[in-house]
Amino acid sequence: MEQVRLGTVGSGVIVHSVLDNVMKTDGIVLEAVFSRSAEKGEALAKQYSATKVYDTFEALLADDAVNTVYIATPNLLHYEQTKKALQAGKHVICEKPFVTRVNQAEELFAIAEEKNLMLVEAAPTSFLPNYQILKELLPKIGRIRLVMGNYSQYSSRYDELKEGKLPNIFNAEFAGGCLMDINFYNVYLCIALFGVPAFAKYSPNLYEGSGVDTSGIVSLSYDDMQVTLCGAKDTFGVNFFQIEGEKGYIYVENGPNGLQQIRFVTKEGSETFNEQDNDDRWFYEVQNLTPVLLQEDMQAVKERAKITTECVRVIESMRRDAGITFPGD
Fold first, then answer.
1. Could you tell me the sign of the dihedral formed by the alpha carbons of 8, 92, 67, 280, in that order?
2. What is the pTM (predicted TM-score) of this model?
């Protein structure tokens, strides 16, 4: 691929974060925008130097100049929009969480493979330089026994929920809730580092009448390791991710989202690592994903697909067991 020419679907905050970094990255440009709101679409296109704005998804997919579709819509729309984009012959970058059901993930990756298209979940974690450092440090702390993580970020949308409104992020009709948003980062990092757990359970705080969780605790069991992951959109606290082994521990400041700084501690002493000069995690996502797309590195894409599929599988199982259901379940 000579150049990644994006067509965007969605106009939220994350879209702006991604496109800010597209503007700084060689080999990728914003080609076209789809928005049901002409005003929002035109404003987004103007800000990021795109010349085309479409008011239907089908019109965007019919644009031959667009070779890659970036989907950043409410969670429940990801499956249908990704499938349509793949069927139209477009590569797809889909925001996290990818889809709500594992059979959807398997179907989409199968379509991508059949059509020789690249399909990638936009989860910044595994694109971060500090993620590679974390992986390299794991063997040095010996047999891992305990993992603990907390990611709590009070949401202004929670205030809206308490006022009687139902924003998408807390709406079961759009596959909202804390597990699908905040605690996703904890689960994704664990599966990326340790693989699929033997047992997974979610204990949520369900908001009365909404059918979705505003906070909760994930418990994962591996053969010889136990994991506890807290996530919240209704509280705030100290965010961290800690991995404890028989020879030492690794402490990640500010939790799994940005992996901002890593402290490695053994009985012999401690070291601090940080290869991320830029605090913007989307900078690294765009900078490191773009070469994968340009080089059409299908092996790298398939490796990420495995993590995505297993993450969907584990989260689906946990939320169903916890009584959280979405349309189509």
1. positive
2. 0.95
Each residue's pLDDT tens digit, 33-46:
999 888 899 999 99
Its sign, for the CA torsion 71, 120, 22, 182, is positive
Burial grade of 162 (CB within 10 A; 0-12, 13-18, 19 or more): exposed
Taking 50 as the pLDDT cut, the residues of the chain under it are none
Contact 23, 9 (CB under 8 A): no
Superfamily of domain 4-122, CATH level 4: NAD(P)-binding Rossmann-like Domain (3.40.50.720)
Give the right CATH number for 126-283+312-321 from 3.40.50.10540, 3.90.1150.10, 3.40.640.10, 3.30.360.10.
3.30.360.10
55 contacts 77 by C-beta, under 8 angstroms? no
Contact 253/214 with Cβ under 8 angstroms?
no
Locate the domains of the chain by residue range: 4-122, 126-283+312-321
